[in-house]
């Protein structure tokens, strides 16, 4: 077995690989960019090398630099993880040319599946069922337009070299085709260096079911159950599970055998995933093959009891597959939720910030957390905004869902927006519990997945007051006389009762509270109501009783910003002080950058008349494009940035003079 390997990746997948390698007695070399000098994977590795500046194009995608580090460190093999260079044929060839084992398939297999159009041709010859569409080499717009008419609508434009939902557009009718094609090509060129497209019939109620396959160097292949990855946003997976609910044993077997046939058709070696679209009538169609370990591989590990990274290392060393097909068994049900720094209420806009507070559920045989970050780390613009993967297992799907709901309630983050509340609503939604799964699940159930807060606003304000006051008490200077009122921070007044004022800002609203402290409890006056409150704070854990209702919550108070966590929900407020002078980052009629990123296109000129909702600027951040739209009808008076410029969150991009009609409507 290898004695030393290099991991050509970062984040949670690098940490995940290190754990298995160390368990097997293998030393690990990490690589890192300037932005990752203090990253968790660097600390976990036996040694680490800096490979360049923060942008991945200048660090993690520098194949020659990584090969150089592998040789210098004496690493016998390179594990590429997923993303970055994991499906790069030139990198796999460079490893081979330098006598370094690439822990993945041969470069020929990567090349065969790297082009989605070429892959479909290979699968067609191998007898694997395909979705109707076009996957030819002729990329002339007229040809694609004709093939689109032939395919029929709705259809899906997909980057031939793509993945992760980038370079993909659903087109409902021909009138949308040209604009969608231009946008998909541009995004694909930026993400993969290749603008070529394929066209597929867009199935209206499909499920996304994929098969984990493994092949060794002798050509033997097995499949290790299937995963359902139907719940997606922007064609990116959000929640995955194994096994796929509702599949018959016959379908499961047919799909598995088709996946192995697909892998063997390209002389595959190692871990791979064959993805299928599964239709309501039970038919399934080849979609693509990912020639690497998948993000969602832990759910397969949980139900099979196998360590897929260990399998990768053994197969790359030259060992046979650890199990025959008849020996592959599954037990129970597993789910994985991807915890992202993003804002679901703003169309899942990626978020940046500091993880100033991070508390995760306890790990056990039922709960697993794969992550590459620790409290205090920054989520930057340079890499994917995934914070962690939360994986749960139990005997049945219902029990596993309950585990997931509970684990999400115990996952608490402050300092950056996350999708935890959304994931909690998703896992607990009745249609999900009943396995009504399609790739359109999120759009079909938006009302269920974006619920109102579980906490009544007044009760939340009372809890916030209790948290603030109890934390102040915990920081009081200890008096020589513990009973002296003069050492307290409760605005005590001699010979009178004094209700101290407390102002809490929630969004744009400022709430005026009055708090009267009595012996072992508080009276909190808010919105014309009186609440009797008892509270006890232990670190970040508040136990409170409000008018006889016992509530336990966690919280984090930092620089007057308070976040309370309750049953998967959060309540955020600011201790308001008049001296703060809160101001809007951008005034009415202006467009502000919603995140750090780069300007891809400016779609207006000074003097242009624009309408509300019209796309004016295209930004790229975290490898995805985002359209910035006009807030109202008006005339463009200033444009402050040009294509290619880097901008910071909150920066004013375009100024618009709002027309009188728009102002009247707003009023």
TrEMBL record:
Pathway: Lipid metabolism; malonyl-CoA biosynthesis; malonyl-CoA from acetyl-CoA: step 1/1
Keyword ATP-binding on entry: yes
Subunit structure: Acetyl-CoA carboxylase is a heterohexamer of biotin carboxyl carrier protein, biotin carboxylase and the two subunits of carboxyl transferase in a 2:2 complex.
An example molecular function term from Gene Ontology annotations: metal ion binding
PROSITE patterns: ATP_GRASP, BC, BIOTIN, BIOTINYL_LIPOYL, CPSASE_2
The Lipoyl-binding domain, residue ranges: 580-657
Protein name per UniProt: Biotin carboxylase
Cited function: This protein is a component of the acetyl coenzyme A carboxylase complex; first, biotin carboxylase catalyzes the carboxylation of the carrier protein and then the transcarboxylase transfers the carboxyl group to form malonyl-CoA.
Cofactor(s) required for function per UniProt: biotin
Keyword vocabulary terms for this entry: ATP-binding, Biotin, Ligase, Nucleotide-binding, Transit peptide
Residue intervals of the Biotin carboxylation domain: 1-447
Native source species: Marinobacter panjinensis
Reactions catalysed: N(6)-biotinyl-L-lysyl-[protein] + hydrogencarbonate + ATP = N(6)-carboxybiotinyl-L-lysyl-[protein] + ADP + phosphate + H(+)
Gene3D superfamilies: 2.40.50.100, 3.30.700.40, 3.40.50.20, ATP-grasp fold, A domain, ATP-grasp fold, B domain
UniProt-listed NCBIfam families: PRK08591.1 (NF006367)
Domain ATP-grasp: from-to ranges: 120-317
Pfam families on file: Biotin_carb_C (PF02785), Biotin_carb_N (PF00289), Biotin_lipoyl (PF00364), BT_MCC_alpha (PF21139), CPSase_L_D2 (PF02786)
